[in-house]
């Protein structure tokens, strides 16, 4: 719906509205979030973030005997006082170990009458300092708590820590920081100038602006149930500009029997995608989990398996060249290793090289779970994922993106942001590829946590796209549905609609000021603008993108 300003003199006020957020930011007296992160091991640690925040003291070291009674180890810990309910705590510290070349170290929060929880992890080394970043959300008030450190594999290791920081944020402060990033990273100022054919600026020209497409990819998985399903298709197209096939491109779907290729479902789904100009990810070429590998692969010799792998790549890349913006080359490689066991430790590296050779324009991803959701999974810590990426790139793999599945139960927002900060140091696009909330929670709680995760992803400057794992089928959804089977919104669907509306500029109408100009602040994407003055009018389009400061757009009538 278009809205008209109440009077002509309000054009000047648009400029005031443009800077309202700046004024609010200047009056904000809370902490600004520090996105700093480090992946290299340093001879000297950096200073603590936020000047240490509220941690206020050095760690104390407790003495404990080693498991084999060979000596005494020193374990660091921090005592926290007055942990406040609803507060989000950002935690960071530099870690060094002795008596081992390398070890995965986790920081654990211990609170009375609650289960100990991991709040951050780091791959530490001997002789240099490694940066651990994480945090926690306090669900209830506590007089005291303890953060302690231990090896994830229960080895007896001397651990040293320094430059620790604990910075609390209220929920309002955390939301302010999110909105600050959205306004600076997802929007730009636009000034439209209207003139006559002689170049004279026209005051009082009517300007109608409408955002007709969004730049940020926000979408959902779809399943074969969308084929020929007009209500499903209309519901999807109204909301999303991106999609991913839930199962229909996986190897066990396209070649259930050796040599019998069947792309019928994928082709029909792709017809829907093309007809509606929707961006689509390719998921996936290979999946390391033996449960989801075609049965006929299991008994192949290494030579025959290699031939099958090469045929799989050639088949997909030749058939779907330029159709999919991404390919998840090897899915869940941090957790499973079917192909490495069969083809050798460089199997994933060779996958990337072969895929890139078959289609040099394809954008290639690793994709895995329990990376951003938790730090309890020792197989998929942020540092292990980064190490895997660096190994592949050093080996010559062309890797263009990081896929974080994002299957959450109760999200730890401080940990989510800290992990994204660490990945951001690689300079690669980050996508949340399979976002959902566990069905162990009721619909209202799913919606609450979904909003938290989506705001966290959209506000982080290094996240380039978000995909929901909410494909609809007659039997329901994987974990979380946005609608019922009649496409009536469930609470999670209401959240998606609310955020889509909030993250789009929409349509509006106003008039040029005495300088013949009209200004607004808009989200990245494509816009249609109509200028009218007397009997003259002009309609055109322009794009707003990240690589601009203020967009100046000239219209001549």
What report would you give on this structure?
The protein has helices at 11-18, 20-27, 171-185, 230-239, 251-254, 264-275, 302-319, 338-343, 347-358, 382-394, 413-424, 443-459, 491-502; strands spanning 60-65, 72-83, 88-98, 102-110, 117-125, 130-137, 142-151, 158-169, 187-195, 206-214, 218-222, 242-245, 279-282, 286-287, 326-331, 363-368, 401-404, 407-408, 430-437, 463-468, 507-511, 517-523, 525-533, 536-544, 550-556. It is of the alpha/beta class and 557 residues long. The strands form 5 sheets. An 8-stranded parallel barrel has the order 11-12-13-15-16-17-19-20, surrounded by 4 helices. A 5-stranded antiparallel β-sheet has the order 1-2-7-4-5. A 4-stranded antiparallel β-sheet has the order 21-10-23-24, with no helix packed on it. Helix 7 (302-319) packs parallel to helix 9 (347-358) and helix 12 runs parallel beside helix 13 (491-502). It is globular. The two termini are 25 Å apart. Residues 1-18 have low confidence and may be disordered.
